[in-house]
Write a structure and sequence with these properties.
The longest helix has 19 residues. The chain is flat, with a radius of gyration of 24 Å. Helices cover 13% and strands 42% of the residues. The strands form 2 sheets. Strands 2, 3, 4, 6, 7 and 8 form a 6-stranded antiparallel sheet that branches. Strands 5-1-9-10 form a 4-stranded mixed sheet, with no helix packed on it. The protein is mainly β.
């Protein structure tokens, strides 16, 4: 009789332990979530696309102060691509690298330097409060124009 009570108690204990850990989420190795608290945003878009065959999927690697901080989301070259970050108040150097999908290799590759937007860098200041938005607009010739605004 004692043995049956002991086994029943062990089963109940195992069920309770299993239920207690049931609400936990497994670790996710997917993309990291960007915090909603940011003070810098880059928006990149190529307005010089006039042919759907040239409108390739791409993204921009973003370097802040010569350190890779991440990349924009992937979208067609003619669509807006966003990158958000939290930077300390100071003067910063922004540098971008364009990466496009090579459909034959089925991977993203960095185009030659001649096909990168020029200029590919910008100095900007982050104030104590407010959000700095940098809009990178590329025209038909590949020339880049930066518009900086503080909200």
């Amino acid at each position: 009789m004692r043995r049956e009570v002991f086994i029943a108690s062990c089963i109940v204990l195992c069920v309770l332990i299993g239920c207690a850990g049931g609400g936990r989420q497994p670790a996710d190795d997917g993309p990291r979530v960007i915090s909603r608290d940011y003070n810098f945003m880059l928006v990149a878009q190529n307005l010089g696309i006039d042919d759907p065959d040239r409108d390739l999927r791409c993204y921009y690697k973003v370097f802040i102060d010569k350190v890779e901080e991440g990349r924009t989301e992937i979208a067609l070259d003619s669509q807006k691509k966003y990158f958000k970050a939290t930077l300390r108040p100071n003067r910063h150097l922004l540098k971008v690298e364009k990466w496009v999908l090579d459909q034959r290799q089925e991977k993203y590759v960095k185009p030659n330097n001649i096909d990168q937007p020029r200029p590919d860098f910008l100095y900007f200041d982050v104030p104590e409060s407010g959000t700095v938005s940098v809009e990178l607009i590329i025209d038909r010739t590949g020339a880049a124009r930066y518009q900086v605004s503080i909200d």
